[in-house]
Amino acid sequence: MTETNENKQLLHLVFGGELSSLEEVQFRDLNDLDIVGIFPDYASALVAWKAKAQATVDNAHMRYFIVHMHRLLNPSEK
Predict the structure, then answer these.
(1) Separation in Å, CA 15 to CA 4, 12, 76
(2) What CA–CA distances, in Å, run from 57 to 2, 52, 64, 66?
C-alpha cells in the first residue's frame, strides 16, 4: 500500500527541559526531560510546543523544542 502526500505522516517530537546556561543547549538534568509527545504533523506539534513554552515562561532556563523526526527517519526525503 502506497501513501499519498495527503495522508503521509510527518512525525514531530516535542520535548523540553531546563538548560544549564542560557548560552547553549545543554540540559541541566537529562532525567528531568519533559517528553511532551510525538505528533503526526508540524501544526499539531506547534500547538503543543506553544502550550508548554507559555506554561513555563517564568523560568528563563526552561526550553522546549520541536524535532522533525520524519527528516531523521528518511534523510533522503525533503
Answers:
(1) 29, 10, 24
(2) 43, 9, 11, 17
